[in-house]
Amino acid sequence: MQNISLPRLYATMRWYLSLHARRLLLSAAGVCLFVLVSKLPVLRVPHDDFGSADTLFHTFLSLLGIYMVTCGALIASDVPDPRRRMQLFLLPASRLEKFLCRYADLLLAEPFALVAGLIAGDVLQMLLCAVVGVPVVSLTLSSMVSTLPAIPLFADWKTAAMVTSVIFLNSFFLLAGTLFRRHAWIKSCLLLFVTFLSATIAVWMIVKLVLDAVYGEGNYSLVMINSNWTGAALSAVCILLAVFNYWAAFRVYSRMQAVNATWHNF
């Protein structure tokens, strides 16, 4: 079976969406209800409505960003039913197609449902404000106009380093998600903390040992160089690590058993 076939990929994605249709609808309904509930105090006590709308939009944007970075941790636990996992195992699709569809369901379908819920709640709250007679302010349009143009994607190497670091974190959580089944998100966060702390201590000790051997202990000072070269180097390292993490996540995922899908059951 070839790795990618668009009709087969489309059919597999439809299966995933039908499997998680209830979860997606609940997510959209929850965001819509939250927007309406947050609007109720404004209907009774007038205040800076644009300020509250802007705060709500930025809060939603921050939470959505956190989810999109860490959602890969759920890739091995988003199908908890053994019968469903067996159906997934028997689907007429390649391992790569199953992996891509499962990851796209987490990375794209869930955020799309959340944004759809925000837009629906925004429309309903504007209609509610028009009926009650208070000033109508759009949560999405007014805040997007003021926020999105201020995001300097790849304006310089520092920004590029930040974006590639986010991509690396996403790949790290995806790889960690293939290693854990229960409480995967919490374990992935703990693994990230331990890995980052251990790598920082190891790099610091190696640099200190080298500099002590060359210049003598205490005869030097360390200064963080903040330039385009450091940004480019950090971007290159993050890209290489992200590529490795995505590759390793696919290799581990493709060797999981259907029923007992954990990392030690290759």
Explain the overall architecture:
The protein is mostly helical. Helix 7 crosses helix 8. The protein is built from nine helices and no strands. The longest helix has 38 residues. The radius of gyration is 23 Å and the shape is flat.
Short description:
This protein is an all-alpha fold and 266 residues long. The protein is built from 9 helices and no strands.
- SSE succession: HHHHHHHHH
Residues in β-strands, percent: under 5%
List unreliable stretches of 5+ residues.
Answer: 44-48
Query: How much is the average pLDDT?
Result: 78
Instruction: Kindly report how far apart the N and C termini lie.
Output: 21 Å
Fraction in helix: over 70%
**Count of DSSP E strands?**
0
Count every helix, treating DSSP H or I runs of 4 or more residues as helices.
9
Give the topology, please:
Elements: H1 6-19, H2 21-44, H3 49-70, H4 82-89, H5 95-132, H6 141-147, H7 157-177, H8 184-215, H9 228-253
Helix pairs in contact: 1-5, 2-5, 7-8, 7-9
Any key phrases for this structure?
266 residues; mainly alpha; flat
